UniProtKB/TrEMBL annotation:
Residues in Transglycosylase SLT domain copies: 63-148
UniProt-listed Pfam families: SLT
InterPro entries in UniProt: Lysozyme-like_dom_sf, Transglycosylase_SLT_dom_1
CDD domains: LT_TF-like (cd13402)
Highest taxon above the source species: Bacteria
Protein name per Swiss-Prot or TrEMBL: Transglycosylase SLT domain-containing protein
Length: 159
């Protein structure tokens, strides 16, 4: 009986050690992938991850796997420039140029921002409003016109 218990204990210790090694190797591989990304991409993804945490804490049903979709929208809308202002499209002609990473117009930003996240040019604030607008207007990223178009092999369509 003692030999069986000792065997089971040794097996568990070995399995736990193996799992820890695998987890450490996976974490290191993910870190290496992250470090290979351009600095701008890491910066933008950092803003996105921060915005996702705020959104989750405020009741938005968004998971951490949405980083890629938000990143794509940001790069297509503003090329990752939090100070981007579009002064040439139809919104600008009506006096409401789109601004920031996700190119929100002022009325949309005001309608979808969260309290305390009030600066349209602040990266996290802009992402929060842009994501909340996307969810309210399209039900999520699966219906975002730019992402849908790209998924069908077309070009990005602004929202």
């Amino acid at each position: 009986m003692y030999a069986q218990q000792a065997f089971e204990q040794a097996t568990k210790v070995a399995a736990d050690a193996h799992a820890q090694r695998e987890a450490a190797a996976k974490a290191e591989a993910e870190r290496q992938i992250e470090m290979r990304k351009p600095a701008k991409q890491r910066e933008v993804e950092g803003w996105i991850k921060e915005a996702i945490k705020v959104l989750q804490a405020n009741g938005t049903n968004i998971d951490n796997n949405s980083v890629d979709e938000i990143y794509t929208i940001i790069m297509k809308e503003s090329n990752g420039n939090p100070n981007a202002v579009n002064n040439w499209d139809s919104n600008a002609m009506r006096g409401t140029p789109s601004k920031g990473l996700m190119q929100c117009i002022d009325p949309t930003f005001r309608a979808y921002k969260l309290p305390g996240y009030d600066n349209i040019l602040a990266p996290v604030d802009n992402i929060i409003a842009g994501v909340r607008y996307t969810y309210a207007r399209y039900g999520g990223f699966h219906n975002h016109p730019g992402l849908v178009s790209m998924g069908l092999g077309g070009g990005y369509r602004g929202y």
